[in-house]
UniProtKB/TrEMBL annotation:
Organism: Streptomyces goshikiensis
Domain of life: Bacteria
HTH merR-type domain segment(s): 1-70
One Pfam family in the UniProt entry: MerR
Keyword annotations of the record: DNA-binding
Xref: PROSITE patterns: HTH_MERR_2 (PS50937)
UniProt cross-references to InterPro entries, sorted A to Z: DNA-bd_dom_put_sf (IPR009061), MerR-type_HTH_dom (IPR000551), MerR_fam (IPR047057)
Name assigned to this protein: MerR family transcriptional regulator
SUPFAM superfamilies: Putative DNA-binding domain
Amino acid sequence: MITIGQLAKYVGVSTKTIRVYHDKGLLPEPDRDASGYRRYGANDAIDLIKIRTLAEAGVPLARIRGLRSATDTEFQQALGEIDDELTARIRGLQATQGRLRQLAAGRLTPLPAEVGAHLERLARWGFTPRWVDLQRDLWVLVFATHPDHAFILFHDQAETTADPALRQLYLDYDHAYDLGPDDPRIDDLARRIADATRERYGRDVLPALDTGSDIPSLIQGTVNASSPAWQRLDTLIRAHLGV
């Protein structure tokens, strides 16, 4: 027979934890000896090891308490379920660890390969690193939150930038970043973009651009926040299009 302190040291938990298990009804509290000390035996140690193992596996204490009255078959079935749950958690943690290591190495780019290729083309076409980085951040956000709609929007943008004339509008948009919001070149660029948008999608622009999602406004809001000139451009383009 051993004391609560010896039991705690043997199993690898604190005496406070053992008392909590007593209070929660997980581990029966033994009688005290003539000196007033609780004395624990081998069965108590085995029970405590079981409780500790299940608790470390993430099993709630209430569920552990319920397993005390389970039959051998029920207990083995529960252990199998817990093992499956733990395996899934381990896989999730390993995936998180992989992303963390990618982040530490500066290689966190959770984007489809075709988006990565598109970003590389933007750089070759003369877009500024600021624009390419902004596009990457936006597509990471969009694909993470709305993957289905994201592909619709991405393919539309990829087709647009593949057209030399339309690509030049994007380039002009990119290079307007540092212009003052009242610069007359912004008014001219807004008109040209509105004309090209109307030509691409027809006069009823809004339905043509509607994907049933809030992604377009999310993207445009992020772009607008980057530059007063870009915000002014967006306002003028909307005015020209009547949206």
